[in-house]
Design brief:
18 helices; single chain; mainly alpha; MFS transporter; MFS; globular; 395 residues
């Protein structure tokens, strides 16, 4: 009888998970600060810019949706390895320059991000069952730091690297490749066994529960608010008179503001009886801060950006935490994650596209109204998804 495979140490698993998490947002936050330069060089119109900010969110949903199939075939650990390698590939494609590699790279890297994001909650439930809130907070905080790095460092990279915006965007493939190399030995050390009966129908099983769709609604609508901000905040600030460096700095501040709430909110929410107050409070903070960035004096944009980031980071961490808390076991967590992120990101894709089209039709006032509408929907879904209940993919 052969000895069972050695389980990687928990500390190494945690470090590997954080390295992966760091690379799950730069692909999404690096285009916004350079959108003016990209449009000037390529002739990309307003509708094309809106599509550029929308397609990656759709591919996030597609990546999340195939998570269960990838997990059954490769195992969740190797599925994450595949995902982060795809992210690195998509980011690297941008080095070719031009609109086709830009759009293709955005879609490929987003699919990898969606796949990883769909698999990670199940890994947390499996490997850290006694520390779900803390570990979810840590990897969400690290993800937000990656978003901040992408937003704040891409314009300096544009100035420092030959090759213009294509090289500045492609440079983010390097940390993704490093994460792939770090995660590979951890993933390959884990055995993969055939899926248990019923796993293949996990999404269908979890989808029978109304609560699953309420979690999905919250996840999708809060993501829509985040992707509107990632895609359009630099343009909003530049239209108000900031230059590219200052607008990128403020966007980076916003992303940095996500880090503390991404750590604190999951930890506190996991200890609470339910999460309804967390959801409503964070949505309200997000709306107030975003409207301030649109209309308040420029002298207060820095603290407003931090407040916006705190709200967005907290909502994202809360969404991931509710996925884990509402699921009865790791299989159910993986199924709920695939549903909430797969369908949720399809909902989220409407945000950046609608925001851009609303601006073209009626300026920032119409865009602000759309933002508030999505926020109201997120609050209503959060009131239902935050209740203290659990569901199973098999019952």
């Amino acid at each position: 009888m052969s000895a069972p495979p050695v389980r990687p140490p928990i500390l190494l698993l945690g470090v590997g998970l954080l390295l992966v998490a760091f690379n799950l947002r730069p692909a999404l936050t690096t285009v916004g600060p350079l959108l003016t330069e990209i449009r000037a060089e390529t002739g990309l119109g307003a509708a094309g810019a809106a599509i550029l900010t929308t397609l990656p969110v759709l591919f996030l949903g597609l990546g999340s949706g195939v998570g269960p199939a990838i997990s059954r075939r490769l195992g969740p650990d190797r599925g994450v390895l595949l995902a982060i390698a795809v992210v690195a590939l998509g980011l690297g494609l941008r080095a070719l320059g031009g609109l086709v590699p830009l759009f293709l790279g955005a879609c490929v890297s987003a699919a990898g991000i969606g796949l990883a994001g769909g698999l990670l909650p199940g890994l947390v439930k499996r490997d850290f069952p006694g520390h779900v809130g803390l570990v979810t907070g840590l990897y969400t905080m690290t993800l937000c730091l990656g978003a901040a790095a992408g937003a704040g460092l891409t314009v300096p990279l544009l100035d420092a690297l030959p090759g213009g915006w294509a090289a500045a965007l492609a440079a983010w493939s390097v940390p993704a490749a490093v994460a792939s190399l770090a995660w590979a030995p951890l993933a390959l050390a884990r055995p993969h066994f055939p899926a248990a009966p019923g796993v293949g129908s996990g999404i269908a099983g979890i989808g029978r529960h109304r609560l699953a769709w309420q979690v999905t609604g919250f996840m999708g609508l809060q993501s829509s608010l985040a992707y509107i901000t990632f895609a359009w905040l630099p343009s909003v600030l530049r239209s108000r008179g900031l230059d590219a460096v200052d607008a990128g700095f403020i966007a980076s501040l916003m992303s940095l503001g996500q880090a503390p709430s991404a750590l604190l909110v999951p930890t506190l929410a996991a200890r609470a009886r339910d999460q309804r107050a967390h959801a409503v409070g964070l949505v309200a903070l997000t709306v107030i801060a975003f409207l301030g960035l649109l209309f308040a004096p420029l002298g207060v944009v820095a603290p407003l950006a931090v407040g916006l980031g705190f709200g967005l980071g907290g909502m994202f961490g809360l969404g991931l935490t509710m996925i884990v808390l509402r699921a009865r076991d790791s299989i159910s967590a993986a199924a709920l994650s695939a549903l909430a992120q797969g369908v949720g990101y399809s909902i989220a894709a409407l945000g950046p596209l609608g925001f851009g089209l609303a601006h073209e039709a009626g300026g920032w006032n119409w865009s602000a109204l759309l933002f508030c509408t999505f926020a109201l929907g997120a609050a209503l879904c959060g009131l239902r998804a935050g209740r203290d209940r659990t569901i199973s993919a098999s019952a």
